[in-house]
Amino acid sequence: MTTGTLITVAPTGAESTKAEVPALPVTLDELVRTAKECEALGAAVIHVHIRDDQARPTLDQGRLRETVAALRENTDLIVQLSTGGAVTDPEAERLAVLDAGPEMASCTMGTVNFGDDVFLNRWEFIVELHTRMQERGIAPEYEIFDLGQLTTLRRLLDKHGLPAGGHVHVDFVMGVPGGMPGTTEALVACRQSLRDLPEGTTFSATGIGRSTIPVLLASLSAGGHLRVGMEDTVTYAKGRPVESNMQLVARAVGFAQLAQRPPMTSADVRELLRLPP
Ligand code: KMH
Ligand code: ZN
């Protein structure tokens, strides 16, 4: 039975520029402040991409470690580092993200067209990420950009076993130009495909751009959880830029409360996802 709602905030991403989106948190200070405020509102997980001194996406190991340490020190949020990075990041650097020791990390289940780019995720790379996470006790969030990627996930689990902690959690990333659309129909198709995955598999969903609200509502009504943030959405409503990540988290919390599925604490989420101690 689904009770509360797991709310993930994805505050930064790798795609928007600070010049175009000044409210984007790009420094460690901005990120920590955002994390604290989003936690106070009801977020339990933070999906993290970091930037360099010029606000460009980076996978710099020192910065990643510093970020994990600062978020741990200042919040009780579950820190989920992105292994997706930016579309230009090499596989070796994406794998090395795990060396920063996060509690969770993202793990995308296949290659997808990504606007005018390609987000490359070869099978061997997926297996390597999954295996390293198993060995290190890092819980994956399997990112699903298209329906067939759930079949890849099933193949991965069949051939290489369950993730650390034994619980499977997926995130439907919907509405990327090149991936599945951010519609109720697509979410229901994904939801139905979960029956081929281990019993108890949980899911969250996020809709890119204007699909954010339809996906949020569809996920709540289908028993799913939510991811929101400026990685995915920089327009709050027609003609209104997002002012902050807190604005998006507050909206998600409002919808979750309306659905009588209030936000879960990070302690509840650690239990739900059976995160390794
Ligand atoms: N920035 C995208 C190319 C992830 O974080 O794992 C990939 C992405 C997925 O954001
Ligand atoms: Zn990401």
TrEMBL record:
Pfam families: BKACE. GO terms for molecular function: 3-keto-5-aminohexanoate cleavage activity; metal ion binding. Keywords: Metal-binding, Transferase, Zinc. InterPro entries: Aldolase_TIM, BKACE. Its cofactor is Zn(2+). The keyword Zinc applies. This is Uncharacterized protein (DUF849 family). It comes from Micromonospora pisi.
